[in-house]
Design a protein that fits this description.
This protein is an alpha/beta fold and about 500 residues long. The chain has helices at about 1-20, 25-30, 35-45, 55-75, 175-185, 230-235, 240-245, 310-330, 350, 355-360, 405-420, 440-445, 475-495, and strands at about 75, 85-100, 105, 110-115, 120-130, 135-140, 140, 155, 190-195, 210, 220-225, 255-280, 285-295, 300, 305, 340-345, 370-375, 395-400, 420-425, 450-455. The protein is built from 13 helices and 20 strands. It is elongated and about 85 Å long.
Length: about 500
């Protein structure tokens, strides 16, 4: 009897292996068509979705559409009986603000403007301000050297002296006002006054900023941009000399006496957003997982103008939908995947990879059993700056040489066998100035040690513009790229072993 059972088990195993080898993924990959992608994209990136901004009605409509698609296909809900994984989002709106120096009232937008991000409702009365030069802190330069500002209101000059240099630029530069406010907080400052030359300013009519972290271990200091007129009122006769010296040299910290009253009143809205997960259960390796991801959010509406986000990332979103349909057809034909496949569309990417970060910190499926994440973010256009090769037959591949030595050889062999695209590795270097490796949702899988591939078409003139519309998509090349992801996922879901994790995560931050 035992021999018979063992014989049957061996026969079943060989039959299963044979069935997997016999199955031709091209049969099902061909069901991913330009016409099908186009039909889906005109819905996902249509006016009804209102630009799909995170935690808005447009995003909720898109989530409902994706959920219904997964249900119609017969996928299993990916979050303990639900297709949506919700997470909290908060939004601030400024109700009122006031500033008075030495008994003189100053006008909002004419003389000062509160910085709306991070700070909470706050009011203070102080008799002393500490000027800390430009408020710059890095490994070789510290405007706070020799002075304690804990509990103090600090005043900071805008920009940096001409003699200051940093390898970090843009928002990451220590001379950026975000960094200055953060460093003031780290030094213990209670509030920050940033002297700015561009007053008067237009009223800040934009909607309040969204954020994830309502509860923090420390309080972000309130920040106000103030005019040079106010700076002169506080600093007095020193102001002209300070301003002139600051153009070329570091300004030493100094305390100034002044009676300052400031008020910032904000309202907090409690919102939520969601990721949408559908699962196709595997067979003999169903407790191991392949993720196929894309972000379905975009920039929403600004002044009633819709930012459609057809390429970014409607193209990736509908590719996930069509890949799911192709794998369901394969399973219905008796060629289901060995590993379970999780089709996940996330929100909050445009805000800072929020949805994927939330998933990575609250994983539903074990991180150690997740073999790979294949992330699709912008695959519907042609890079106008790509001057070599065939621009009608390429895709940028990012991250395939990170974390697993298995991944790149598999990706290239699949492409050679099925797709024959030009695989362009322009953005594969984490040190690339555009930092593409850190800028989409795959990164939150990679930082947890999960091997990833990110598929991308490059930056075009409609990137983050209202003109990123479905009529500008090259659906033929989108079809090729989506099929390539399908064939790669097919291999990942059916190979004998999970991918090795034998390469260290590249050092870097978003």
């Amino acid at each position: 009897m035992i021999r018979k059972i063992l014989l049957l088990a061996a026969l079943f195993g060989s039959t299963f292996s044979y069935a997997q080898k016999k199955a031709k993924p091209e049969t099902f990959g061909k069901s991913i068509t330009a016409e099908g992608l186009k039909k889906q994209l005109y819905i996902v990136a249509g006016p009804e979705m209102e630009g799909r901004e995170t935690a808005t009605e447009g995003q909720r409509k898109a989530a409902a559409y994706i959920e219904n698609h997964f249900k119609t296909l017969g996928l299993l809900p990916g979050n303990n009986g639900s297709f949506q994984m919700k997470y909290p989002v908060y939004k601030d709106s400024i109700i009122s603000s006031a500033l008075k120096v030495n008994g003189n009232d100053y006008n909002l937008n004419q003389d000062f403007q509160p910085f709306s991000i991070g700070a909470r409702t706050n009011q203070f009365f102080v008799s002393e301000v500490v000027l800390v030069g430009h408020g710059i802190v890095d490994s070789t330069y510290d405007d706070y050297a020799g002075i304690d500002v804990r509990g103090k209101v600090v005043m900071i000059l805008e920009g940096s002296p001409s003699t200051y240099t940093s390898k970090q630029t843009g928002f990451r530069s220590p001379a950026n006002f975000y960094a200055k406010i953060n460093n003031a907080g780290k030094k213990g400052a209670a509030a920050v006054l940033i002297i700015a030359s561009n007053f008067p300013r237009l009223a800040n009519t934009a909607p309040g900023q969204m954020y994830l972290n309502l509860y923090n271990s420390s309080i972000t200091p309130s920040a106000f941009f103030i005019s040079e007129k106010i700076a002169g009122e506080i600093i007095g006769s020193d102001w002209v000399a300070v301003k002139e010296k600051s153009k070329t040299a570091q300004v030493a910290p100094k305390k100034y006496s002044a009676h300052i009253y400031a008020d910032l009143t904000k309202k907090i809205q409690f919102l939520e957003s969601s990721n949408v997960l559908g699962v196709l259960e595997g067979t003999d390796k169903k407790d191991e997982y392949v993720f196929i991801t894309a972000h379905y959010d975009h920039l929403g509406k600004k002044d009633n103008v819709i930012y459609y986000g057809a390429d970014d990332d409607g193209s990736g979103t509908v590719s996930v939908l069509e890949l799911a349909a192709a794998f369901v057809k394969a399973k219905a034909a008796g060629n289901g995947p060995r590993r379970s496949i999780v089709f996940m569309t996330v929100s909050g990417e445009e805000k800072g990879l929020w949805g994927s970060e939330y998933y990575s910190e609250h994983p539903i499926f074990p991180i150690e059993k997740t073999s790979v994440d294949l992330n699709i973010d912008m695959i519907g256009r042609i890079d106008p700056n790509r001057k070599t090769g065939d621009s009608t037959n390429y895709v940028y591949v990012v991250g395939d040489d990170k974390l697993s030595s298995d991944l790149k050889p598999i990706s290239e062999s699949i492409n050679k066998k099925y797709s024959k695209l030009e695989l362009d590795y322009k953005y594969n270097d984490p040190k690339d100035p555009t930092r593409i490796y850190y800028r989409s949702d795959h990164y939150n899988f990679a930082r947890k040690g999960i091997p990833i591939i990110f598929y991308f078409d490059g930056i075009h003139n409609d990137y983050h513009q209202p003109s990123d519309t479905p009529d500008k998509i090259n659906y033929d090349i989108m079809e090729k790229r989506a099929r390539f992801v399908f064939y790669t996922a097919w291999e990942m879901a059916n190979r004998n072993d999970m991918l090795k994790r034998d390469i260290a995560l590249p050092i870097g931050t978003r």
